[in-house]
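At this stage, I wrote out one protein's amino acid sequence and its backbone structure tokens, and that material follows here:
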Amino acid sequence: MLDDHQIIGEALVASMLGARAAAVIAAIDLDGALAHRAPRGGVSRICFAAALNAILFDDILVRVPTGAAFVADQRARGERIRFDHGALRTVRFPAGGTGALPAGQDAFARILGPLGYHVAGTYPLPRLKMTGRAWAHRDMPEGLPQFFVSELHVERFDPAFAMAAQRVFHASRDPLDATAKAVLARFERDGEVPFDAAVAALPVIVSAFDRQHPAPALDDYALLLDRSDEAAWIATEGNAFNHATSRVPDVAVEAERQRAAGLPVKERVEVSQTGRVRQTAFRADPVVRTFRDGNDMVARTVPGSFYEIIARDVDPATGRPDLSFDSGNATGIFAMTRAA
């Protein structure tokens, strides 16, 4: 039974993270969203979205030691993390290709839409043969992190690439069960669900942000890597957060500070065409993944996820922070997961 004095969002996060929940909640500035109460006393979509973001943030810190070091440094300075956005990559075939998993961003539109998100901007990434879409929350666009969901377009590559991609992704599973889908439908209809239903659905929905296909064949991975670092990354990491991003006052100053501390920060700061959005990132941390090699399983070190920092100036047209993205910036930032 939920204690009347316990914030619903904190209880949701604790239902998955246990003792780690308090540290995660203290580190990121999601207080208003986590404390949001639904009109009828259930879990609001704002609250659920905040809990989901907190858990995904914790996951990337577990997987990305450089990101964990940055967050620890910020906390030691008395700063909280302003979680700006999380990014994930998907694959879209002209038809089929991803097994039971809906194609491309459709796998996440069915989650983000019912939780109150909408596509606030579409960003062509032609050099990468991808398209990015920024999902912002309708009710709390500045108080909840955005999701930057990119799709890799298989039809823009050669037939050999398409065949390898088909072999890698064709057996993808759908992580959402009937219970989670019912909870999402109720969020879409009512804007809230009972606490117990939210607790039951949360780990299932979190599991969507992971790899849904089996270990790829080493030869297929090598072919994808030859044509697209991004496709190869999805082959090993799936739909996990590719990166999480902190909003900071001055990206150049913060990057230099982290570089002086020995962290592997990208040399260049990416600047949007408007000049209002500036980004840079840490190099992706390496991870060990298994591959099929004939009848054997072999391990290889490949690029994992990474951590990013961003600064957003006020848009003079609105008087609010410019929450947009930039195709050129995104293309430059995506390079953090290129194989060394």
Q: What stands out?
A: The CA atoms of residues 112 and 118 lie 7 Å apart. Confidence is low (pLDDT under 50) at residues 1-5. Residues 45-63 form the longest helix (19 residues). The longest strand covers residues 83-92.
